[in-house]
From TrEMBL:
Belongs to the 'GDXG' lipolytic enzyme family. It comes from the Bacteria. Pfam families: Abhydrolase_3. This is Alpha/beta hydrolase.
Length: 317
């Protein structure tokens, strides 16, 4: 089966296997962050220049939140698009630097303003702390839209993995006014069902980067009790209805334990009348969009997300 893997992915997996890197779940969350922070810079490509980058602190329900604000090259001074980007990392790891490459791509390709919040991480801050920080980041973007040259009708949310989970939940929250209105949701291999019962958890349990054991470790640090697992704000696939959510772009990877739930969420959204552009990369693994130095299609995934976003604007509901 591995003969279908992308060449760059196969090379990275071989390097990882030979290095005997310890699984994140064998240490503490603090140690997992140290290990992750030591490794991700080697996977990112050269930083793409943007018009500007600044860090700023905003108020959140649990205290101050640092946000990083990117202005893309060509972003208009007014009436432009805005994107809230939520980084991945299983709600436990990840930070403003770990997904800097993706934010720069989005800023330039969409000629937009990107805001990325450094939301609180589990287990120190369990659900719903991180989600509420992300909601505060979205509210800040909407409230400051004029200052950033953003058209309120052109705000989208995006994220990968756990960030894709948070983005999907914000898109559901926005229907009732619990979060600002959204023009699009751009989900990159999102986690949509914390029950972790999809068959892809069996097919790709080990040997393809993110393992089923690691994902359970992430999930168990994030939730407070087992009851949270079936809460739609943790498992958006379990929402009673997704009707009225923003149009969605959903990217999935072939050799990913989250593949089936990403595809299931695309199907669920369509079933509930939401416009969906679904794109599957069969030879890729979870996290491939953060591996731009070795996987050229990483940037292509962001290009396709931006193209879908623009298609939603061109043909609004």
């Amino acid at each position: 089966m591995t003969e279908e893997l992308d060449e760059g992915v196969r090379w990275l997996l071989d390097i990882s296997n030979r290095s005997n890197t310890r699984p994140l779940e064998t240490g503490t969350p603090r140690q997992a962050r140290i290990d992750y922070n030591a490794g991700f810079p080697a996977l990112q490509g050269a930083k793409e220049a943007v018009a500007s980058v600044e860090d700023r602190q905003i108020s959140g329900p649990y205290g101050p939140i640092t946000v990083r604000i990117y202005r893309g090259v060509g972003a208009p001074p007014k009436d432009g698009p805005g994107l809230l980007y939520l980084h991945g990392g299983g709600w436990v790891i990840g930070n403003l630097d770990s997904h800097d490459e993706i934010c720069r791509w989005f800023a330039n390709l969409a000629e937009c303003t990107v805001i990325c919040p450094d939301y609180r991480l589990a287990p120190e801050h369990k659900f719903p702390a991180g989600l509420m920080d992300c909601a505060a980041g979205l509210a800040f973007m909407a409230e400051s839209a004029t200052d950033f040259g953003i058209d309120l009708r052109r705000i989208a949310v995006a994220g990968d993995s756990a960030g894709g989970n948070l983005a999907a939940v914000l898109a559901l929250m926005s229907r009732s006014g619990a979060a600002p209105w959204l023009a699009a949701q751009l989900l990159i291999y999102p986690n949509t069902d914390a029950a972790q019962t999809a068959d892809s958890y069996r097919r790709y349990a080990t040997g393809f980067g993110l393992t089923a054991t690691t994902m359970k470790w992430f999930r168990d640090h994030y939730v407070r009790t087992a009851a949270d697992i079936v809460d739609w704000k943790v498992s958006p696939l379990r929402a009673e209805s997704a009707a009225g959510a923003a149009p969605a772009f959903i990217a999935t990877a072939g050799y990913d334990i989250l593949a089936d739930e990403g595809l299931a969420y695309a199907s669920r959204l369509r079933q509930d009348g939401v416009r969906v552009v679904s794109r599957h990369w069969p030879g890729q693994i979870h996290g491939f969009v953060s591996m731009g130095r070795f996987i050229p299609v990483a940037r292509q995934a962001i290009e396709e997300a931006v193209a879908a976003w623009r298609s939603f604007e061109a043909a609004p509901d």
